[in-house]
Amino acid sequence: MYATILVAVNFFYISMKWFTQLFGDHSSQAIKRLQPKIQAINALETETQALSDGELRAKTDEFKQRLSDGQTVDDLLVEAFAVVREAAVRTMGMRHYDVQLLGGIILHEGTVAEMRTGEGKTLVATLPVYLNALEGKGAHVVTVNDYLARRDAQWMGQVYAFLGLSVGIVNDQNQSFLYDKGHEEVDAERDEEGSYKVFYEFLRPSSRTEAYAADITYGTNSQFGFDYLRDNTVRRPEQLTQRGHHFAIVDEVDSILIDEARVPLILSSQSNDAEDLYRTFAGVAAHLREGDDYIVDEKLRAVELSDEGIEKAEKILKIDNIYTQENIKLVHHLETAVRAKAVYNRDQDYVVRDGEVIIVDPFTGRMQDGRRWSDGLHQAVEAKEGVTIKAESKTMASITYQNYFKFYTKLSGMTGTGATSEEEFRKVYGLDVVIVPTNRPIERIDHNDFIYQTEAGKFKAVAVKVKELQEKGQPVLIGTVSVEKNELLSAYLTQQGIVHNMLNAKNHESEGEFVAKAGIKGAVTIATNMAGRGVDIKLGGPGCTKEEEQIIKDLGGLHVIGTERHEARRIDNQLRGRSGRQGDPGETQFYVSLDDNMMRIFGSEKVKSMVATLGMPEDMPIQNGFITKQLERAQEKIEGFHFDSRKHILAYDDVLSHHREIIYSRRHKILFNDAEYLETIYQQILAVSPELHETIEGKRESLGEEIFTQVMKDVTLQIIDRLWMEHLEVMGDTRQSVNLRAYGQREPIVEYKKESMRLFHEFEHTWLHDIASILGRIDVQATLKPKTPEPELIEINNKSDTVIVVKGNETKEVKSKKVQQWIDAGWQIRG
Ligand code: ADP
Ligand code: MG
Fold it and tell me: From the CA of 535, how far away is ligand 2's center (Å)?
């Protein structure tokens, strides 16, 4: 540990008038309101510095005591922040700047703090996280990838550990850790390199439950979400991992709550069939031609088959008519196969790695290991690529990020680029955005776009520029939109003899190190948007001397080149933000061409014809205000389009969410042996199946109260889970079919709501019947036999899916789900 006291930089250098003009009333009012608090924290500094390490740590117990005596976290804020700041100085030699205190209060208030890249958001989070963790209900820090969860926890963990709080980390593949203090031997090294390197000494493997039991837990959005879903499929309370949703800070909040929110989280179990079907249909799709047999809607990413196309398919399949009741499934297969062929492109929408199809996020260029497209699309792409087709999976549980993050009593977020998404944060998440001023004035220069006629012309120009910059020694970071474009550009640079690094967001950990070094003299780094995310680019490189840093500053700082306008302005701004951190010099320049996807699909004809009439050679740029404006308008259009599509997903998930809440709370009560509730279910079961009344009572008697309750609990959980899976599937199908029915002028969502109500009623009816029919048939002898170590108490026969019904001397085996229909028709269930 070392304690360099850094000179405080007062953020009041900014005149409030100027700030208001720039960022609007909302942010400046918040800042004005919070100024007295900042002053109060600063006023405590001298006395906090005078405390011994032990006394400083004892503050944690004192705060906890005061909370249990009735004070609130708001009452403690000023003192707690002063304590955390001092702990950070003592452990890491970093003293929170005033603007960082400000950011911390904003996060504590459950707001999105927009703080630019390099403003030190990782450190800012320690303030509200410590304060809110004091309540003992857990504080979650959500990062964009597993590597950042580990990095932030082992880096910031020292502050929390110093103050006596525990830290857990949840990573994918069920890897979890607890922060392990000590390891003095690498402490100094960690302070130096902890911003990009994970010192594993500080991470001790633990169970998932332990990681969540810690005062503070770091993890990715997907792990938090999946753990929630998994917790709602367990059969025993000790398998639960999470302990509620108290307070969360989402780092890079726009990436997580906006960009990633288009794909819901799905937990699935696998079932094997239809592999041949996928191959067959991939073969059929290969025979169909765009134009004659189908048309593609690039904006909607959909295909529409023509009559000729359908006929051709029927001929190949040797089927008379594919549009019949029993062939409906095949229609879906056919459409999916054609979509896989016509709309989903290799190295753009997905990559094939080690015989696997891996999705690439269209927004961020980031590979999404483990994610799969649903509804058979993934299998269709696998069939098209000729790789192994993974078994079709059944959804066991699913949720959108929007609905998961609503569980938190208090949610907040931080990002460098939140303002352009203010409306969505407010409407969807109820989150306000406050723009925090930078610690030092911004020096970066953003140049106007260069526009080229062709992509080749654009890349040639980039290569020439980069060569010039490398010769001069100015470091360059070039952003691309995809792995494919990365490789293409790399070839251009190689041709010019430019030595460079290429980052594809394939390995966040090692790429983090490359990005950390992207500010070294002469460095050229090509990166997709997510590559090296969250890692700071220091001019001169990590641990360089003041002189080395100055050389880079004199060269103009980091030069950022964008090679394509992204679908959202926010993502362009993220790239620009890589340059000019903490008042450094820097410049950014976008190179775009008419071949770019954005221009091709959304650019207006006017622009194209205008450029054509200018008659410029392909590697000559046009800098034209009109065209740049058109581009930005197109971006806004796409942003709106995506916002709508997310709202759409949410509207549908809200319907399901209502059911999910009912079912999960029911599950929860059963899991925790809520005696009163179990008795209620028991009475309901008897009520729906009067004919089984005696049989079930008999079983209850012979099994004894305790075992019977255990059996009933287990049966109930299994039935709920199975029916819930079915419900999810039927709801999914319904969603598709209401969209088809939309042609008949009805609002699909209204239809969906209506239908879902009916389906849920069906669910409500079926589950009690199913439990009754199983309980009525439970083999008492088998249940009473000595138990195997297997914790599941009974094995439910798969056939319990069906029920025997009788009428007169007729007997039938029917689906238990459908049993009501039979009862309505005068049949009785055979006990
Ligand atoms: P952001 O997430 O806002 O882009 P980081 O949290 O990655 O920024 O921090 C950027 C760099 O700034 C880190 O290397 C960190 O060590 C440094 N830093 C942050 N806050 C301070 C501070 N108060 N004093 C000194 N250095 C700081
Ligand atoms: Mg960060």
Answer: 7
Sequence-distant (≥ 6) Cβ neighbours of residue 619 within 8 angstroms: 452, 457, 460, 461
Q: Residue 283, Cβ neighbours under 10 Å: how many?
A: 14
User: 84, 123, 218: which to mutate for ligand 1, most atoms within 8 A of CB?
Assistant: 123
Whose alpha carbon is nearest atom 19 of ligand 1?
Answer: 120
How far is residue 117's CA from residue 121's CA, in Å, rounded to a whole number? 8
Residue with tokens 């964009």: 144
What per-residue confidence (pLDDT) applies to 121? 97
Q: Read off the pLDDT of residues 326-353 as tens digits, 9 standing for 90 and up.
A: 454 577 788 889 999 999 999 989 999 9
**N- to C-terminal Cα separation, the chain:** 73
Which of 706, 652, 680 is closest to 771 using CA atoms?
680
- Would the pLDDT of 473 be above 50? yes
Question: Which atom of ligand 1 approaches the CA of 582 most closely?
Answer: 12
Mean of the per-residue pLDDT values for the chain?
A: 86
Whole-number Cα distances in Å, 687 to 309, 473, 676, 691, 692: 55, 82, 17, 9, 9
In Å, what is the CA distance from 580 to each residue of 327, 576, 682, 813?
Answer: 60, 8, 66, 72
**d(CA 156, ligand 2 centre) in Å:** 12
Task: Show the ligand 1 pocket: residues with CB < 6 angstroms.
Answer: 6, 94-97, 100, 115, 117-123, 195, 536
- Return the residue whose CA atom lies nearest to atom 2 of ligand 1: 121
Ligand 1 center to residue 174 CA distance, Å?
A: 30
Look up the pTM and report it.
0.79
Ligand 1 centre distance from Cα of residue 260 (Å): 25
Q: pLDDT at residue 434 above 60? A: yes
Give the position of tokens 């079932």.
Answer: 271
Would residue 733 be called left, alpha or beta, if left means φ above 0 and alpha means ψ between -120 and 50 degrees? alpha
Q: What is the pLDDT of residues 168-202, one digit of tens each?
A: 999 998 899 999 998 888 888 898 898 999 999 99
Which residues make Cβ contacts (< 8 Å) with residue 614, sequence separation at least 6? 622
Tokens of 637: 């259009």
**Atom of ligand 1 at shortest distance to CA of 195?**
14
Nearest to 504 by CA among 393, 347, 725: 347
Report the distance separating Cα 804 and Cα 625, nearest Å: 75
Query: Which ligand neighbours the alpha carbon of 255 most closely?
Result: 2
Task: State how beta strands 203-206 and 476-480 pair.
Answer: unpaired
How far is it, in rounded angstroms, from Cα 361 to Cα 358?
10
Using a 10 angstrom Cβ sphere, with 0-12 exposed, 13-18 middle and 19 or more buried, the burial of residue 830 is middle
| Cβ-contact 774, 694 below 8 angstroms | no
C-alpha 414 to ligand 2 mean position (Å): 9
Say which residues have a Cβ less than 8 Å from residue 161's Cβ, sequence separation at least 6.
167, 179, 181
Residue 760 CA to ligand 1 centre (angstroms): 50
pLDDT higher than 70, residue 799: no
Selection from 261, 483, 270, 267 nearest residue 359 by Cα: 483
What does DSSP say about strands 410-415 and 112-114: parallel, antiparallel, or unpaired? parallel
Gap between the Cα atoms of 659 and 653, Å rounded:
10
Query: Length of the chain, please?
Result: 831
Q: What is the DSSP secondary-structure string of 385-396? A: HTSPPPPPEEEE
Q: Which long-range contacts link 419-422 to residues 24+ away (Cβ below 8 Å)?
A: 419/23, 419/114, 420/568, 420/569, 420/570, 420/573, 420/639, 421/254, 421/258, 421/570
Q: CA angle, 97 as apex, 13 and 149 as ends, to 5°?
A: 140
What letter represents residue 208's amino acid? R
Does residue 4 surpass a pLDDT of 70? Answer: no
Burial of 11 from C-beta contacts in 10 A (0-12 / 13-18 / 19+): buried
Residue nearest to atom 25 of ligand 1 (CA): 94
